[in-house]
Design brief:
It is built from 16 helices and 19 strands. By secondary structure, the protein is α/β, with parallel strands linked by helices.
């Protein structure tokens, strides 16, 4: 991967020379420097009367009342780790003095991108065309791109050539450097591109604006060593890097003190956690430490690779009072032949044996999965094996995907690509099977009274709230917003196939 260099102005060089060396302190320094420039820009607009033309009157009054200097919008594509990164980016922008808005007609628009499938890339390119139109009408608008898609050299080259109106491009390794990059762009009229091909340090102690005040994702590791033949993630997220358990525990304690009752431990393969630490720690051992945190009510995690899921982890989950009764266990295919081609390092038989051990220990656990249809060389017999494993495991839900060819992965070089019409027909058959089983599985708790974490006001039914069971199932029930963030008993009166209607127990 090419590491792009950016132009640096004398102004930036002078400010940078005074910046602290510590990575965390350095970024807080640049937050303040960016705030100064953004404030000056906003005050200039106000003094000249241009602010009234840029912002609707109600929004302008709000900016002035709250002491904000502009607006921003973040669109997040992809996984839970991207969502967590976006919370950090949002926190940095709010510290700079910008107000988050729902509209892309903002002073700064950031796309946090995903590149797992090609359609994710195409969606971003499509949105950029719209942003170009907005930018022509909004002088000074800043457009920024980050995330996995930016780690692809061909993508960045295309952006440099055909999307020159983009202001700032950075990748997955230097998200923490966002404030510094914003300041650099404010000092520079040219496109800023800062892409790294690796990172040794992990910088987490930065401002974060959580979507929900009562639950939060927590990164426990970054990168992936598995190199599944279809997957581009190891190439854009790098090799596995685990955080020290002390750092993780401290962060969770701080979150709990701030009102968080549920955490989601995040990693490309959490079961590999701790292998690269100076003093190795297993994921099961980390979970035991998290379990002991007073005030924390629920623990979730994702994603688990089947090849690394240990009996120790099963035992910890079985005995835990806080770990949710849900496990995401991607199978990808039911064919051992295809699994070998995918470089998954397990067979259909070993996967089913693992499921048996999990269900023996935790009979009521909800199992969810990922499945790819149309992997190169997949025969009808291979696909029938996938249907068979779906019927035997009986997943509570499954994320189903059509194989997406990703340049640079081993699978992209395979010549036996499956005809589009065949893939679509198989996909529809799989989806029908998954949905039927999911509806049956969801209904097994009908009539019971179970604990629900109340998450938000129901957008479809007045006077109703929405929350989740430990197993992840959604529940709608009468209530008011005072319940948000609480865990309360709810009687599950009726299963609607993919969710429940209930009433307070």
């Amino acid at each position: 991967m090419k590491i792009y260099k950016q132009n640096e102005t004398p102004e930036f060089e002078m400010i940078r020379a005074a910046a602290p060396e510590d990575d965390g302190a350095r970024q807080y320094y640049f937050i303040e420097q960016a705030k100064i420039l953004w404030k000056q820009q906003f005050e200039s607009l106000a003094d000249s009367g241009e602010a009234a033309g840029r912002y609707e009157s109600e929004l302008l009054l709000r900016l002035q009342a709250e002491g904000k200097y502009g607006t921003f919008h973040i669109a997040t594509f992809g996984c839970q780790m991207n969502a967590r990164d976006s919370e950090k980016l949002c926190g940095i922008l709010e510290e700079i003095g910008l107000l988050e808005v729902e509209s892309e007609n903002a002073d700064l628009v950031l796309y946090n991108t995903c590149t797992v499938r090609d359609n994710a890339n195409q969606k971003v390119y499509g949105r950029l065309g719209y942003l170009q139109t907005l930018k022509k009408k909004r002088p000074g608008m800043m457009i920024a791109l980050c995330g996995c898609m930016m780690q692809e050299e061909l993508v960045v080259d295309k952006l440099k050539k055909s999307y020159r109106f983009v202001d700032l491009i950075f990748g997955t390794y230097n998200v923490y450097k966002f404030a510094e990059l914003i300041y650099m762009r404010l000092c520079n009229s040219e496109m800023i591109i800062d892409i790294w091909d690796k990172a040794d340090q992990i910088v987490e102690e930065l401002p974060t604006e959580r979507k929900y005040p009562f639950k939060s994702g927590v990164n426990i590791m970054f990168g992936c060593n598995n190199f599944c033949s279809y997957c581009i993630v190891p190439y854009v997220r790098g090799r596995e890097r685990s955080r020290e358990p002390e750092q993780i525990i401290r962060e969770i304690r701080e979150l709990v003190a701030d009102g968080v009752v549920e955490v989601m431990l995040l990693g490309q393969n959490v079961n590999s956690y701790g292998k690269n630490l100076e003093t190795p720690v297993t994921f099961a051992e980390l979970l035991k430490q998290v379990e002991e945190i007073e005030g924390l009510k629920r623990i979730r995690f994702m994603t688990s690779h089947p090849k690394d899921l240990s009996d120790d982890l099963i035992e910890v989950m079985k005995n835990s009072k806080k770990i949710c009764s849900q496990l995401h266990l991607p199978v990808q295919s039911g064919s051992s032949r295809i699994l070998k081609e995918m470089n998954r390092h397990y067979t259909k038989e070993s996967y089913l044996a693992l499921v048996d051990r999990i269900r023996t220990a935790m009979p009521d656990i909800s199992l969810t999965t990922d499945i790819i249809v149309g992997f190169p060389g997949e025969t009808e017999e291979d696909f029938e094996e996938t249907l068979d494993i779906v019927r035997r495991v009986r997943y509570d839900s499954a994320f189903t995907f059509i194989y997406s060819k990703r340049t640079g992965t081993p699978a992209a070089a395979l010549t036996e690509q499956i005809p589009e019409d065949v893939v679509k027909e198989r996909f529809e058959r799989l989806l029908t099977e998954v949905q039927q089983i999911s509806a049956e599985r969801t209904g097994r708790f009908e009539g019971q009274t179970l604990d629900v974490l109340v998450e938000e006001k129901n957008s479809q039914h007045d006077g109703y709230m929405t929350g989740r069971l430990s197993c992840g199932a959604v529940v709608h029930f009468p209530g008011d917003e005072s319940l948000i963030g609480q865990i309360i008993p709810v009687k599950l009166e009726e299963s609607k196939g993919f969710y429940y209607m209930g009433k307070r127990g």
